[in-house]
Amino acid sequence: MQNAKANTVSAAAQVSAIENLIAGLQAQEQETRAAAEKSANELEVAQQEFDDAARRAADIQTQADASKATAEAATTQAGQLAAQLYRTGGTDLSVNLFLEGEGDGADADLLLAKLGNMSKLVERSADVYESAQTATNNAQSLSDQAKVAQAERETLRVAAELALSAAQAAAQAAANALAESEAKSVELEQQLQFMRDAQATTTAGYEAGVAERARLEAVRVAAEAAARAAAVRAAAAAAEAAAASSGGSGVSGSSAGSVSMSGWSVPASGRITGGYGPRSTICGSSGQCSGSFHYATDLGTGCGAPLYAARAGVVTWAGALGTYGNFVKISHGDNVSTGYAHIEDGGYNVRVGQSVSAGQLIASSGDTGAAQGCHLHFEVWIGGNRINPVPFMADRGASLG
């Protein structure tokens, strides 16, 4: 490097080479980040398709069970009519009518009346039997459809699991590429700055400057972290004060961050602003739009409000994920996980692989992704399915607002 500085032409060439290296690293990092975002979007679509298929299979099975019950009832009624028909027709009324035709007119009229009633009974029995057969066929058809829907659900479940693995791998690759790019860029920027120095005698001063810049950068990062933590604590205190002044309207029977006897915690303070179930599509400022079924409960937290782990577990996702915006997912064991969406930019307090305790501060509320206003989109997963969080949390002594 000293020789390069003594040679203006050589120094200029090396400066250009370093600039190209830095540009290449930045391009590589952007490509890896784009691949991770694509995998995350594919994961979200796969999960949506699986959940929709699961609901379809359950609906069809319910219809099949109802149709089977109808068929059984109709078959029973048909049997009862057949028995009645047998008792009524113990003798051949047509023969009786012929043999007794020699009698008076009153006898003949009576036999004709009996014959008419029997014909009506036969006709009614046939109708009931036909209805029973139709209901039986319908129940079988629905049962077959339910089996197909269940097979489709299983296929989509496997696809969702594969998409999750791919998305997690892509996200990790992007994080690694970013770390490598940043580390290499710092090194190359230092070399670049050194070679741009016209005098070799300034080397010692340059190295001292690098050390000073590193120290100042560390001070700045620490100050920003302290300010962010102070803001989160202030927001938490304000939320708790607001809940106390309003008679505890923020939560029902428990407060955000406090842990119940069962080991569960309310993830945030705020009233419920959106429930689990069908709803209109919502589009955020980023242009991303949600689906027509809401697999979560929304809590109106306000911007920057603290979000807490609902139970002890391990963080399996901490990053951008499609319409979720910034998203954290925690696995609690026993096939149970919880998800926290629309976290504000820079609002993470945890990383993938980190163990957390119930009620631990994990993030700050925001409006990233398909969101209109700052709130917590809170999900509960049992296996691969997202369920209604409200009764689940209430059963564990951590009722949502």
TrEMBL record:
<feature type="domain" description="M23ase beta-sheet core">
    <location>
        <begin position="293"/>
        <end position="389"/>
    </location>
</feature>
<feature type="coiled-coil region">
    <location>
        <begin position="29"/>
        <end position="63"/>
    </location>
</feature>
<dbReference type="Pfam" id="PF01551">
    <property type="entry name" value="Peptidase_M23"/>
</dbReference>
<dbReference type="InterPro" id="IPR011055">
    <property type="entry name" value="Dup_hybrid_motif"/>
</dbReference>
<dbReference type="GO" id="GO:0004222">
    <property type="term" value="F:metalloendopeptidase activity"/>
</dbReference>
<feature type="coiled-coil region">
    <location>
        <begin position="132"/>
        <end position="198"/>
    </location>
</feature>
<keyword id="KW-0175">Coiled coil</keyword>
<dbReference type="InterPro" id="IPR050570">
    <property type="entry name" value="Cell_wall_metabolism_enzyme"/>
</dbReference>
<dbReference type="InterPro" id="IPR016047">
    <property type="entry name" value="M23ase_b-sheet_dom"/>
</dbReference>
<protein>
    <submittedName>
        <fullName>M23 family metallopeptidase</fullName>
    </submittedName>
</protein>
